[in-house]
Amino acid sequence: MTSDTSSAIGTHPPEPAVSAPTPVIRRSRAAVLRAVLSQTLLSLVALLFLSPIIWMVLSALKPSAEVFTVPPKLFGSRIMFSNFPEAWNYLPFGRFIINTVFVASVGTAITLVASALSGYAFARLNFRFRGGLFVLYLSTLIVPQEVIVIPMFLVMKEIGWVNSYQALILPWAFTAFGTFLLRQFFLTVPKELEEAAKLDGCGHLRILSRIFVPVAAPAFAVLAVFTFIGYWNSFLWPLITVSDTSRMTVPLGLQLFLGQQGQRWELLMAASTIAMVPTVALVLALQKYLVRGIMLSGLGGR
Amino acid sequence: MAILPVDVTEVASTPGGRKRGDGRVAVGFLAPSMLGLLAFTAFPIVASLLLGFFDWPVIGDHAFTGTQNYESLLHSSEFKTAIINTVVFVILYVPLNIVISLGLAVWIGPKIRPRGLYRTIFFIPVVTPVVANAAIFSLILSPNGLIDSLSLTWFGVQAPNFLGSTTWAMPAVVLLSIWQGFGYNMLVFSAALDAVPASLTEAATIDGASPSARFFRIVLPLITPSIFFAVVLTLISSFQVFTQAYVLTGGGPGNATTTMVLYLYEQGFRFFNLGLASAIAWVLFLIILIITIVQFIGQKRWVHYDQ
Question: Complex ipTM above 0.90?
Answer without folding.
Answer: no
